[in-house]
Amino acid sequence: QVQLVESGGGLVQAGGSLRLSCAASGSIFSINVMGWYRQAPGKQRVMVATITSGGDTVYADFVKGRFAISRDNAKNTVYLQMNSLKPEDTAVYYCNADIERADLLPRAWYSYWGQGTQVTVSS
């Protein structure tokens, strides 16, 4: 079994910063891409940023220059540093990871989601 557990959300004023963390645990053989997505009320879930095991990153245009994604492969953890936050960044932020499980054969990639963490930016 595999779990993704997020932390670090909360309420912040516009212009402030937050750092999200997501730790993967369980029967993990390897992790490929990890990423952050968000879903605002009444809207679809969208990609915010992703990072490969080698450190290659992709950002949505609306966060470029403000957010930074990073990961610690030894800890199976991905981070999202969010700076210069805007009210429109308010959403539930979800962690996602493509994981090969150690307890399943043949090897295959499975996509896992965290439970989500609320980020609210006040104006």
What does this structure look like?
With 123 residues, this protein is an all-beta fold. Helix content is 0%, strand content 60%. The protein has no helices and eleven strands. Strands 2, 4, 5, 6, 9, 10 and 11 form a seven-stranded mixed beta sheet that branches. A four-stranded antiparallel beta sheet has the order 1-3-8-7, with no helix packed on it. The N and C termini lie far apart (41 Å).
What are the defining features of this structure?
0% helix, mainly beta, 60% strand, elongated, 123 residues, seven-stranded mixed sheet, four-stranded antiparallel sheet
How is this fold's topology laid out?
Elements (H helix, E strand, L loop, with lengths): L1 E6 L2 E4 L4 E9 L1 E12 L6 E6 L5 E3 L7 E6 L4 E6 L8 E11 L7 E5 L3 E6 L1
What percent of the residues sit in helical stretches (DSSP H or I)? under 10%
Query: Using DSSP, what is the number of strands?
Result: 11
Counted by DSSP, the helix tally is 0
Q: Characterize the largest beta sheet: strand count, sense, and whether it forms a barrel.
A: 7 strands, mixed
The overall pLDDT average reads: 96
Which sequence of SSEs, written as H and E, runs from N to C? EEEEEEEEEEE
Distance between the termini: 41 Å
